[in-house]
Amino acid sequence: MESPKKIAHEIGGVKRDALRFGLNGVKSDIVGSHPLESSYESEKRSHEAMKRTIIGHTYGTALPLKMDMDRQILSRFQRPSGPIPSSMLGLEVYTGAIDDFGFEDYLNDPRDSETVRPVDFHHGMEVRLGMSKGPVAPSFI
């Protein structure tokens, strides 16, 4: 007796919904980040690790753990997806990122561009609650 043939498929959604989010870009899959960007990120991570080590040696091991808990709490606090993006101001103040002067401070924030699609509130909440898959909102038209 032959076993019935089964077709593998994903229940509850598709990994990449081309109708909802547009076609997938191949260039982003092939080309990595710029070498300076990866160097900057690794330097930032090593600086954070050294800072945590120094704080741990100076004030005890409980303070870095408390700082991690505070960072996790502040990173979870967001407003629902919609027309006003979450600024994560508390996390920026806590990490000191509010003092950094990035490109969005003297250029424009990419989310303020005219080519950005409006956010679908319902789909954003479905992704956040795990009922749907895919990015919360497509970035550009």
Please describe the topology of this protein.
Layout: H1 18-21, H2 27-30, H3 35-59, H4 62-76, H5 89-95, H6 103-106, H7 121-129
Structure notes:
- It comes from Brassica oleracea var. oleracea.
- InterPro entries: Ump1 (IPR008012).
- This is Proteasome maturation factor UMP1 family protein.
- By secondary structure, the chain is mainly α.
- The protein has a domain at 33-78 and 85-129.
- Helix content is 48%, strand content 0%.
- The protein is built from seven helices and no strands.
- The chain has helices at residues 18-21, 27-30, 35-59, 62-76, 89-95, 103-106, 121-129.
- The longest helix is centred in the middle third of the chain and has 25 residues, at 35-59.
- The N and C termini lie far apart (53 Å).
- The mean pLDDT is 76.
Main traits of this protein?
141 residues, mainly alpha, Proteasome maturation factor UMP1 family protein
Beta-strand percentage range: under 5%
Number of strands: 0
Radius of gyration: 21 Å
User: What's the shape?
Assistant: extended
- Briefly note the structural class of the backbone: mainly alpha
Tell me the helix content: 40-55%
Helical segment count: 7
- N-C termini distance: 53 Å
* Main sheet makeup: none
Query: Which segments are poorly predicted (pLDDT under 50) over 5 or more consecutive residues?
Result: none
User: Whole-number average pLDDT?
Assistant: 76
Please give a quick description of this structure.
The protein is mainly α.
